Amino acid sequence: xxxxxxxxxxxxxxxxxxxxxxxxxxxxxxxxxxxxxxxxxxxxxxxxxxxxxxxxxxxxxxxxxxxxxxxxxxxxxxxxxxxxxxxxxxxxxxxxxxxxxxxxxxxxxxxxxxxxxxxxxxxxxxxxxxxxxxx
Length: 135
Hints:
mainly alpha
């Protein structure tokens, strides 16, 4: 098994899963526009920042083997981006305050936690990829 290639694939999948999971309330929650906006903007960067870092990490994971930039530099950037994705996700999770919206949509109580858990493989895969690349 090629650990380097597999860590890239799993990293890309984790990034995209994090971004898609973040978008789930937009598709499933209706009638709570103001509360949903507050939910997504909680924390220092909000869910938008988490999505930005997750998608940027996916792009870097996908392009690191292209050869346009030094792969070692991009591997280091991936470790930082992956760590920032999970850190910002955890900060967002800890900043979300319960609202009346959670009464009707009980699964939202666990949504931010799930986003954080799904983002955990991103820095792990980035670290494994960097180790394999630089070894």
